[in-house]
Structure formats: C-alpha cells, structure tokens
Known about the structure:
The protein is an alpha+beta fold and 95 residues long. It has one domain. The chain contains 2 helices and 2 strands; from the N terminus they run H-E-H-E. A two-stranded parallel sheet has the order 1-2. The model has no long low-confidence stretch (mean pLDDT 76).
Amino acid sequence: MFSHNPHKIRPALLGTIVTMSAIMGLVPLTAIACSTYYVATNGNDGNVGSLTKPWQHIATGGYRIKACDTLYVRGGVYNEDLVILNQPESVFRLA
C-alpha cells in the first residue's frame, strides 16, 4: 500500500505556490488590462472616452490613459497646449 507523508507534501506544495507567485508577480497586470480611448472635437471631458462618448481635449486623454492604452484622436482642429512627458514606459505613435 502506498501512503503519502503530509509533512513531505507541504514543503513541495509551498515551493510550488511560492514559485507560481513569483512568476505571476513578473507579469504586469496592466499588460492584461489595456484599453482604447477616443478624443473628438464634439466630445466632453466628463465622458468615458469611448468611441460614442469621446473626450474633448487631447490633454484629458493624456492624463487619463496609462502606458499600454491607445488614444485615438478624431479629425478636427484642436487648439490646445500639450505637454508630453517622456516616461520610459510610454510609447507615442502618430498615425
């Protein structure tokens, strides 16, 4: 008959839990939760920044998005001052 020694299983289980926790800690949660937002001249900065409820100012989008998010700027004339902070985790692409 085969019997398990619970005292030998516990350290192995603990080692597995610690290893998995360390691996999960290396994966940033923000990489999983990236979002897409929109700005349009007819938007409102009180909106949620969606395609149907865009923000009005590019600066509002700049303050509200995080490094992995995408901000689309709809066509139009935007007369505003912008300050783009050069943060290493941020990537700006103009299309």
